[in-house]
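input
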Amino acid sequence: MRLYTKARIEVFGAGTVAALESLVNRHADVAAIWRQPTAEEREIARSTGDSLSVFPYAVDGLGIIVPAGNTVPSLSPAEVRALFTGKLIRWSEVGGPDLPVTVYAPAPESGLVEAVVLQILEGEAPAWVATPGHEMGISGVLSTDAGGVTVGGLDLANDPLRAVPIRLESGEAVVLHPAELLKRRYPWRTKHVFVVQGEARDLASGFISYVTSAQGQKVAVGLGYGPATAPSRLVTLGGKSGR
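output
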């Protein structure tokens, strides 16, 4: 980044859909989002004269997030689908506390809804409620609802919340952790990506080149994510990965 010593980066937290809208309307140079653009989003971009270019920069997972006090030991993918489609209504049905289940939807603009439906629910319709407003977001909501559950990434899997381990067919429970994501043992992976209109140019190109370089990927690992572009053995050389 020393090539651009006078560069200034402005970051706006707007959610996946709003970020892509800002990009297509030329109000932003780069959109940083949770997922790949959909076919419809790519077509909208093409209608404005440019295709979308996508650059992965971090590996994350779709975690089943509950309050830390929820003692459910693990969940199978089938049990997760049953929870999120309304077929299981009490945690005691899956070895947890005797509490009703409240499934909170990810924020619609986050881009997680599509990932949950496709990867976790395998196309089934979810049965969840909109997350009520709270100054601390979903973390604050779950801190007041002991039976609550939602889907989130590595950034949410910390006290006072936790990610429930996912039980594989072998019976082994796998935790949401960068190492398990890189080994592809955790079942639901996603990548954070940068998106630009057409080709990345000028400052946008320099920024993306840095973040996707081995040095930039060390920053991603330091934030608790898995590297998306550099081999993990290179990124973690001389340091520790994961949380």
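quick obs: Residues 2-60+190-235 form a domain with the D-Maltodextrin-Binding Protein; domain 2 fold (CATH 3.40.190.10).
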